[in-house]
Amino acid sequence: MQKQFNQLPHQLITSGKFAIEREMLRVTSDGTLAVTKHPKALGHKATHPYITTDFSESQIELITPTFPTIEAAHDFLETLYDITALNIGDERLWPQSMPCALPEGGTIPLADFGVTGLEASRYREHLLHKYGAKKQLISGIHFNFSFSDEMLSALYEGSPEQYRHFKDQLYLKLIRQYLRMRWLIVYLFGATPAVHVSYEEQCVSQMQALHEDTFSNKQALSYRNSDCGYTNVEPLYPNYATLSSYIDDVRRFIAKGEIANPNELYSPIRLKTSKGGNDLNQLEAHGIDYIEIRNIDLNPFEKTGIARSDLRFLHLFLLYLTFTEETPYFDWQAETYNNQQRVAKEGMSPTSILTRDGHAIPLHTYATELFDAIDAFNTHHGLGFEDVFPAVREKIDHVDRTYASRLKTIMTETGYHAWSLAQAEHFYEDAYANRFRIHGYADLELSTQILMKSAIKRGYRVDVIDRSDQFIRIRNGKHEEYVKQATKTSKDNYVSVLMMENKTVTKFVLTEHGIRVPEGVELQEESDLSQAWHSFSKHPIVLKPKSTNFGVGIHIFKDGATYEEALSAFQYAKTFDDVVLLETFLPGKEYRFLVIGEEVAGILHRVPANVTGDGTSSIRQLVATKNEDPLRGKGYKTPLEKIEIDDIVISFLRAQDMTPDSIPAVGERVFLRENSNISTGGDSIDYTDQIPDVYKRIAVDAAKSVGATICGVDMMIPSLNDEHIEYGIIELNFNPAIHIHAFPYEGKERLIGEILLDLLFKY
């Protein structure tokens, strides 16, 4: 096998499948354990594939699907964190592995899975009585890894063994090697150097106070990985020589009452099957499909609980362990268990001593030699992990750069509780700032991201079929829906789309249904404009391309126009379509109604691009400042679009006797365009709750008239308080953006993604 490995290209060696699980506690606003039920907004914990609970009802567990890259898995984990943080009300997510302030003798609620989860509930009762609730609340990161099928096939080529046996033995070797060297991960990733004063008294009584609420022995790196953490009562050493010997030993542990089931074997690494996880019968029947690393502390400096660079180093570490020779030392399991305990509780000591194959060796020497070997392995095979080495080397050479040492310093100064709660709030604020994004998909239009994020929140499977075309598939069980650009769905037919795209047809159909539209004519040549001009020359007018969206190519003349101005606007509109519409301008404010099914999901008043003067800055400078708002971007990937100073803006300013270099007075509002589209830098203001229902019914009727299920209705309304119903519909949009309603510039944010999913899946 080693020969085959040496011949593999680096892309194949580093290929694999990756998934991450992250546990964390919900806490109240004052940092104590939240004893509320699992939030309904996060779905049912027993069936949700991504967001569930662990031991306690207060303990959230996030589970990513399997991805072909670490980056994709990490992005998904961050998205799950954001969704969770924003759907637990005033509660926050505790960033530490070791628990928050716990009630002395109070209630720590066990996870409640109802009648269908009686077995899970009984198991938690068993853990409660055997280990105590406080230890069970310890949280961590689990990293799931498997080699790619292509790599396994390449390694297997020419092997005399059966494929399944070959694969099992490869994973078993990795497991043995990881157990031998796991102390290095505890050293590098350890982030539990102290505990809160309310933690297990038996452990706290052996420590010294760093702060009034913070206790430690001052040398510990990871209490979670020590005997004060999440471990079996006595260490258990199953035989990892073969899969059958491992299974036999675990069954023996269960028969002797040492553990209740395979899940209670708290090993730093587990062997798993994709057809039943940790179930021994399924392992026996199907073999090992992946491994689960379980000794990683939550990194409270990271919102996700683990840095992407640390995951990359861990991946390299696993490859190194798999393809280097094992030592024959007979008592390796006891030795490596003791090494883990020493690093966990004494890893900050400059004189810490480990053992290697029965011989004493300073921790720093051992770590340096192991790191050098990993570095050489990476270089020899050209694996491309060089970027992760500087930070790892720094931690090995300087223990004060480890996460644990940094935390100990912070908590000595500010306390365990205060700093952790501040971090929880900081991560919440970051989640809120990213509430309109799905991590890893910044290249997609924001409307598509919103729909994807809503689907993930519900536990639906989302597949991006064509990124550049914004084409996705959403699946819930056997029900699947294909969606393009968030609102192009199976619920609308092709003819309806064509009708809305063609403004002449739209006006005809709306008029047939008794819905008011502006008067107008089609223009193809300049001579058409000349012939029609006598009917429009004394009226406010609009010239626009016949079949474009997003306000492109539109000129609005509220006070009328000269023939020369109209001709110039016609020529500009012709660059977008062969046919131009000349229409009377309808008075009033323009509102965008978003119709989804039988309801209006949101209404916006869109204010044209504008700036407000400060008395010293030019319009150009004011635009640049306004564009610095993180909500503004380009290409519909943020809630608002940046303002561009183009020929239309310059022309519009000229009509106001201004230029981009003019300096408006303090408080003076300067409009930069006539059209109010968000796509050209306009501001969105939510009016959903202010618009009378009569106009909402008109919008729904307008959508129905063209057979549209999802439709943007642009309506002009002179006055919302007028007892006479006055309005005019100027346009129907077949692909309305949803992000402008979900995240308006002003007003209430609307759950448009949820409403769309209700329509698609009849939720």
From TrEMBL:
It comes from the Bacteria. Keywords: ATP-binding, Glutathione biosynthesis, Ligase, Magnesium, Manganese, Metal-binding, Multifunctional enzyme, Nucleotide-binding. Monomer. It catalyses: L-cysteine + L-glutamate + ATP = gamma-L-glutamyl-L-cysteine + ADP + phosphate + H(+); gamma-L-glutamyl-L-cysteine + glycine + ATP = glutathione + ADP + phosphate + H(+). Residues 507-761 form the ATP-grasp domain. It is an enzyme of class 6 (ligase). HAMAP family: Glut_biosynth. Synthesizes glutathione from L-glutamate and L-cysteine via gamma-L-glutamyl-L-cysteine. The keyword Nucleotide-binding applies. One of its GO terms (molecular function) is glutathione synthase activity. It comes from Exiguobacterium aestuarii. Pathway: Sulfur metabolism; glutathione biosynthesis; glutathione from L-cysteine and L-glutamate: step 1/2; Sulfur metabolism; glutathione biosynthesis; glutathione from L-cysteine and L-glutamate: step 2/2. Its EC number is 6.3.2.2, 6.3.2.3. Its cofactor is Mn(2+); Mg(2+). Residues 1-344 are annotated as: Glutamate--cysteine ligase. This is Glutathione biosynthesis bifunctional protein GshAB. In the N-terminal section; belongs to the glutamate--cysteine ligase type 1 family. Type 2 subfamily.
